[in-house]
Amino acid sequence: MRMIYNFNPGPAVLPRPVLEQAQQELLDYQGRGMSILEMSHRSKEYEAINAEAEARFKRLLNVGDGYRVLFLQGGASTQFAMVPLNFLPPGAVADYLLTGAWAEKAYEEAARIGQVHIAASTREEQYRRIPRADEIRLSAAPAYVHITSNNTIYGTQWHTWPDVGDRPLVADMSSDIMSRQFDARRFALIYAGAQKNLGPAGVTVVLIREDWLERAARAEHVPTMLRYATHVQHNSLYNTPPAFAVYLTNLVLGWIEASGGLAAMEQRNRQKAQVVYDAIDGSGGFYRGHATPDSRSLMNVTFRLPNEALEKQFLREATDARMVGLAGHRSVGGVRASIYNAMSLEGCQALASFMAEFTRRYG
Ligand code: PMP
After folding, report:
1. Cα of 32 to ligand 1 centre, how many Å?
2. Catalytic site includes residue 28
3. pLDDT tens, position by position, 292-315
4. What's this model's pTM, rounded to 2 decimal places?
5. Ligand 1 contact via 179 beta carbon (within 6 Å)
6. Is residue 102 annotated as part of the catalytic site, yes or no?
């Protein structure tokens, strides 16, 4: 098999041991003579997977009984609507911090449903940075405050959470969930499409604080499938869940635990990101990072080269050197190295060496 380094932004690289286990269990799951793909979601095997995935998720984030974990469909994009549908009643205002294209999308979706307020935005600066604390202007009594913890396209990340007092804090953590240690109990709700740090596309994980759900859920008018309460009541088994995606996510969560949990993930991710940022900073200006240094993401490293022709050349030669998925998002251009949990340190070192070598030849 041809080994490659996969820098895709999502769907993205998965841990090799996880893929191997899935392959091994594909035809015969635990002696049942059939694949998990072919089994009822009401089987005791699937129920065990569903329960184990929830337990692992909560254990990794160190949250106790007051939280529930849901495995839903429709991607993070459906969460953009579900959050306001469930938690933004008429007369209330929700605050959004705009730090990138996904944050904008979440905001626009909420604006279709209720009243919204932009508490901060760095759009004017091409989303190169996260707003400073003194730039954030919350509305008088927001129903919740929404942030995007990691901005996949621009390569920025919140390193200090905004102070929202006792207002419910909601985060889209699609591109950095389980990549670092943080106090999850600061959040009323966290959601993440699985396809970057958690598993395959097709499942979206939601962590929700139960007391907030009870206090805020006046959602009788909301369609059944779009109500959090439905999925909480039915343990994410109201309808047929994306069973294989949840199964794989459970394996990834097991891999994170076995690797030392979030402390180990963070340590490794910091080391990995450092290697690539050092290659940018040490290039004498040949590579120019998109994000300002204080806002740099540990997950998506974005940078430009002196011109587009060189960027094309860089991507071509990188592919020849077995490094794929490096093209920047069309709105930023250039190069984006997505280095999620399952990307190895060796992958980042290979990229950094390639960058230095490329500079020697074209710089
Ligand atoms: N939020 C963020 C931060 C993302 O990176 C993405 C996808 N790249 C989304 C939301 C949208 O996720 P989905 O495709 O699962 O709807």
Report:
1. 35
2. no
3. 999 999 999 999 999 999 999 999
4. 0.98
5. no
6. yes
